[in-house]
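thread from #wetlab-drylab

HS: before we spend reagent money on co-crystallization trials with magnesium ion, can we at least see a predicted complex? here's what I'd submit
DV: go for it
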Amino acid sequence: MSNLIPVLTKEEIEKAVSDIARKISSDYKGCDLILIGVLKGAFIFLSDLVRQLTIPVKVDFIGLSSYGLETSPSQSIHLTKDIEIDLKNKDVLIVEDIIDTGLSLTYLVDHLKKFGPKSVKICSLLDKHERRKADIRIDYIGHIVKKGFLVGYGLDYAEKFRNLPEVYHLKT
Ligand code: IMP
Ligand code: MG
């Protein structure tokens, strides 16, 4: 574990999740809200977040995969699992683990808009600025991180470390 440097403690994560849940519960009062978790990284954040919301909500998941982002961004992202709930005239909130280049999110927002939702907003536990390429507005952010590859609390490296309850910087 010596190559794992602590970045966020359980307490810091819990506070970020409850702060975001409070804002969402107030902003979406009386709305038809659908949360869409981006697989697989957002599964833990989403499950903690929904349990703190005080408004009715529906949950769905979408799967994205990317290869060779560096070489050809627009063609490198594809869906591995599409949504199942009808989004027509609904308020949609995408729930992400971390936003890095922003390219997957740009793809995802365009994709979801095709279903005719009333609104599409973005919520991410982590906002990493180091490699941002797309100009996207993140509506709810847990923590801003400058750089580094992070693991834990859903985030993986080669499918490992998702189960760690805290967030770490993986030093290579
Ligand atoms: P983006 O398209 O570059 O914004 O990256 C989106 C996805 O890449 C995120 O939703 C994560 O699943 C993954 N990712 C980006 N940075 C990290 C990281 O530091 N650790 C683990 N996964 C990451
Ligand atoms: Mg993700």
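DV: The helical segments are 10-27, 43-50, 73-76, 103-113.
HS: ok that's useful, forwarding to the group
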